[in-house]
Write a sequence for this structure.
């Protein structure tokens, strides 16, 4: 059981620090402080404007201010485009390693390969966990297209874009499934999901030839052990940068059903304002077509609509409009619970 201090300097918000927010919401490890000098002295729940999320956890200005809370690990709480380490964070990481802390990084740049950081770890007895380092067992696994265990159900959370809540929806629904007594597992495919689950496959670090194979190996193993496997989606098939990762995931996961994930009101691709997100029916057609290329007929059974920041009446109206226009059960599982989507899965697959 770790005692985490989360580094989110200059980026601590729901959209700016999605790794931090995911860990705060779902990790079984205890978060003792968040580092962000802009909000030092505040409570995490106040900064995030999310009552109950991080309530009672202090925001501090520096690693020096975090050490009295006796952390065991420093977790890098952002997932920047390109996955590089901000230079201004380097002294904080050096200090943490010199103090003997574990540093948990989901960046594309492997901190364990950095000479300065390795030296700091050796001096202080700290260690580095590069979450995006693919497990050796799946790093060069070629996909075989093998079927899953009969009786198991694999669900893929298909996004219209990055950062629309695919991981969050998958985790909320997986936990709701277990509350119902279903034998369920979460298949982590990104750095934050792996930090929460403790294991998974970082698909955006696999060589393209091995993307579908690595995912296939993980999902097949989980399907042997569990009746329900909820696969964290990445990116979108219509994304100008990350579509290849998404395609490898869809083919490797070989899902029995899709759940569409979308942020209400988002019209343009996050970080790429010149690219408009396709209509929801078009996005759904992309995914079902991609699945069909390997001979699978994979339906959409519901929609997880992210309504964060919307007033309740506007959120309910957006959900109702989406449900009517697509003819699919729709809810915001974070805001209103997962029952609508769990019922849809049960009706479609049991």
């Amino acid at each position: 059981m770790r005692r985490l201090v989360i580094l989110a300097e200059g980026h601590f918000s729901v959209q700016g620090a999605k790794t931090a927010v995911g860990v705060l919401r779902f990790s079984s490890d205890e978060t003792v402080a968040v580092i962000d000098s802009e909000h030092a002295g505040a409570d995490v729940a106040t900064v995030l404007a999310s009552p109950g999320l991080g309530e009672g956890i202090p925001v501090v200005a520096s690693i020096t201010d975090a050490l009295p809370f006796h952390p065991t690990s420093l977790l890098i709480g952002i997932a920047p485009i390109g996955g590089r380490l901000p230079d201004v964070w380097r002294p904080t990481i050096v200090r943490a390693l010199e103090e003997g802390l574990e540093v948990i990084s989901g960046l594309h740049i492997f901190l364990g390969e950095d000479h300065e950081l390795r030296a700091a770890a050796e001096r202080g007895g700290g260690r580095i966990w590069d979450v995006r380092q693919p497990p050796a067992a799946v790093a060069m696994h070629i996909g075989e297209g093998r079927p899953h265990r009969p009786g198991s159900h694999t669900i893929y959370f298909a996004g219209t874009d990055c950062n629309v809540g695919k991981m969050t929806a998958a985790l909320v629904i997986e936990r709701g499934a277990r509350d119902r007594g279903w034998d369920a597992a979460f298949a982590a495919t990104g750095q934050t999901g792996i930090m929460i689950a403790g294991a998974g496959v970082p698909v955006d670090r696999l060589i393209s030839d091995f993307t579908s194979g690595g995912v296939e190996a993980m999902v097949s193993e989980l399907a042997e052990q569990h009746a329900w496997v909820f696969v964290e989606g990445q990116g979108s098939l219509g994304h100008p940068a990350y579509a290849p990762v998404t395609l490898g995931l869809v083919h490797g996961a070989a899902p029995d059903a899709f759940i569409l994930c979308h942020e209400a009101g988002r019209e343009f691709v996050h970080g790429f304002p010149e690219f408009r997100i396709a209509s929801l029916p078009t996005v759904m057609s992309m995914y079902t077509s991609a699945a069909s290329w390997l001979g699978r007929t994979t339906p959409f059974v519901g929609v997880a609509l992210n309504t964060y920041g919307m007033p309740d009446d506007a959120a309910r109206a957006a959900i109702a409009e989406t449900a009517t226009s697509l003819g699919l059960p729709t809810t915001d599982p974070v805001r209103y619970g997962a029952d609508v989507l769990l019922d849809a899965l049960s009706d479609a697959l049991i």
User: Anything to note?
Assistant: The mean pLDDT is 95. Residues 3-130 form a domain with the Rossmann fold fold (CATH 3.40.50.720).
